[in-house]
Design brief:
150 residues; 2 domains; 0% strand
Length: 150
């Protein structure tokens, strides 16, 4: 299984993040998992994380933030009510994300939009043909015919 570059970069960021932790919190994460992040990171990518700034201000990848949230839930959060609260928040976020995906990539909506675009294009083409300006010879001919009919 090959990991994407974005995933490897997220592993680099999470490895950097874990290395900034104190020993107590670092040791809560299983050694195998820490080694997995370290062995599968992107060695050509580096990310400086300032421990004095909030995580939100660090410009971390979305995957990294998801991994931090998962590590928090699995290993650092010790209060059961807090775990339940976090799980509820994560479930709500996932449901909202799935709804947005369904709206965006719903095949029925894709075909409806395509049909509207086709209809719009057909009207546009017709409008261009209808409003095409006559040549000067046709205008003169029409003018003369109108004079004769009177």
């Amino acid at each position: 299984m090959s990991l994407s570059i974005a995933t490897r970069q997220a592993y680099t960021e999470i490895d950097t993040f874990i290395n900034l932790l104190d020993e107590y919190n670092k040791n809560k994460i299983p050694q195998k998992l820490r080694e997995y992040f370290k062995n599968n990171r992107d060695i050509n990518y580096s990310k400086e994380i300032n421990p004095n700034r909030p995580i939100k201000e660090q410009n971390l990848k979305e995957e990294t933030l998801a991994l931090i949230a998962l590590l928090n839930l699995q290993y650092w959060c010790e209060d059961e009510t807090e775990k339940q609260r976090l799980k509820k928040i994560y479930d709500n976020n996932e449901n909202e994300y799935q709804i947005k995906l369904r709206e965006k990539y719903n095949p029925d909506n894709l075909f409806k939009n395509k049909q509207k675009n086709i209809e719009f294009n057909q009207h546009s083409q017709t409008a261009l043909v209808e409003y095409k300006e006559d040549s000067i010879f046709k205008k003169i001919k029409r003018f003369i015919l109108n004079l004769i009919k009177r």
